[in-house]
Structures are given as C-alpha cells and as structure tokens.
UniProtKB/TrEMBL annotation:
UniProt protein name: YbbR-like protein
Top-level lineage group: Bacteria
Organism of origin: Thermus aquaticus
Length: 270
C-alpha cells in the first residue's frame, strides 16, 4: 500500500477527465414517444380515455438524451371517481429538461370492471358455424361490457380470433377469455317460419276445435319457402271427445319444430 497516494492521484485525475467530458458534451433536443403508465387505480377499476403513449420533447447532454433515455411518463389517478382531468407527469434524469408533453393533460373516466359471458358468433358465407366454446368471458369497463352483444370472428380457419362487438361496432377495451374459439362444425344455416297448424280428422270424425293454430319451425330456406302449412295429429290418436297432449307433425326432411308442440283438440262423430 506504499503507492496509495499515486493511486488516489490517478483516480482523481480520471474523475476530473470524466466530468470535463460530461460538461463539454453537446446539448441536444430530441422528440420521442413514451408509454403512459397509469398509477393509483384500485384493482377493481379501469380508466377510459387514457392514451397508450405520450410524445415528449427533451433537452440535455447528448449522452443522456440520445439512445434510450431513462425517462418515464405516468398518470396518477389516485382518488379518481367518474370523470377526471389529470396532468401527465414525467420522471427524467437530472440535467434533462422536459420541454413539451403531448398531451399534457388527459381527460377520461374511471369505471368499475365488469365480467359476463358473451355468445360466440362466427361470420361465414352460406354456412352456420358451431364453435367450442360457445360462450366466452368478457371483462372490461362496465359501460362497454354492458353494451357488448357478442364475441364476433371471421371464419378463416379452424381457429377464430374474437372481438367484442356492441350495436355500434367493436369494443377494444373489452378483453375476452379465451380470445379465440375452435370451429367444430360448419352446417347449412337454418331459418325460422311460423306456419298454420292443420288437423285433418279421419273419415267418420270432424274437428270441432283445436289449439294451437300455428307452429314455428326451422329448416333450410329453400324448403321453408315452399311450405305453406303443417299437418298435425294427436299422439294419442283420433277419437270422439277431447284429446290433449303432444301433437305429431308431418314435416319435410330437414325441417323441425322449435320444441315439442303440446295441444288439445275436440272431435265428434259425423
């Protein structure tokens, strides 16, 4: 350790050179975008109207400003309830001046988070697509989740990416879990039609009254377009008096009623 005075002198000389270079570094200006972090929100709330990034204009020594400067932008929403207007704050290293922040102030709204299931709808040409799962979990700001009507995707393969949609279009603030659905079947689309229900009694009996008088059926469009009425008969058979219970329907292939048709009828001997 007899050379420690020389070592100390060398260290001080190096430090002086470093400070000298730092002081002589050119001062530059630079514009860059930085992610905007939100702090101060409770776990069951979310902020609407907050941009993902802000634009910063910085001034300072080139070594500190060029490259990836250690700056961060954040929005403190502590205590924000409902509509808010808060200033964007920027943390920058000493010696770096923040000349401009755009936007400098953010206006938005704090909302509670909500979760609920949404049906999956896949848009396809000429077919009806069945998916697994048939429902997904939607989570996001209450106003958007309540407005959502379906998780919609395009039929472009065996897996379909989903987006929450409301009456006015997509809802980007709503996240879906899972975000994709698997196509398990592509079937001919079915259409609905309400048709008159007709009871035709066999020879020797006449129909006095019956209900219901109509039935709703589903089937291919081209088959339903040519169907004008549906003939029915009591499951228990025709007999004089009142008969109640399921009705059996005579329908073309591919057409079926929406649920079981329960009815009653009164017959009399001619």
């Amino acid at each position: 350790m007899r050379d420690w005075p020389a070592l100390l002198l060398s260290f001080l000389a190096a430090l002086a050179v470093w400070y000298s270079l730092k002081e002589r570094a050119p001062v530059v200006e630079r514009a860059l975008s930085a992610p905007l972090q939100v702090v101060g929100l409770e776990g069951d709330r979310v902020a609407e109207g907050v941009p993902r990034e802000v634009l910063l204009r910085l001034r300072g020594p080139a070594p500190l400003v060029e490259g990836t400067p250690p700056v961060s932008a954040y929005l403190d929403l502590s205590g924000a309830e409902g509509a808010f207007s808060r200033e964007v704050r920027v943390a920058a290293p000493r010696g770096v001046e923040v000349l401009e922040v755009r936007p400098a102030r953010v206006e938005g709204r704090g909302e509670a988070l909500l979760s609920r299931p949404l049906p999956v709808e896949v848009l396809a040409q000429g077919v009806w697509v069945r998916t697994e799962p048939a429902f997904v979990e939607a989570r996001g700001p209450r106003s958007q989740v309540e407005a959502a009507v379906a998780a919609v995707g395009l039929d472009q393969g065996e897996e379909v990416a989903l987006t929450a949609f409301g009456p006015e279009g997509p809802l980007p603030a709503v996240t879906l879990s899972p975000p994709k659905a698997r196509v398990v079947a592509r079937e001919e689309p079915l259409f609905r039609k309400v048709l008159p229900l007709v009871l035709k009694a066999p020879e020797g009996l006449e129909v006095l009254d019956y209900a219901p008088k109509e039935v709703e059926v589903v089937g291919p469009r081209e088959v339903l377009e040519g169907l004008e009425e549906v003939e029915a008969r009591p499951q228990e058979g025709f007999r004089p008096g009142e008969v109640a219970g399921p009705f059996l329907l005579t329908l073309p292939p591919g057409v079926r009623p929406l649920g079981q048709v329960l009815g009653r009828a009164r017959f009399a001997l001619k």
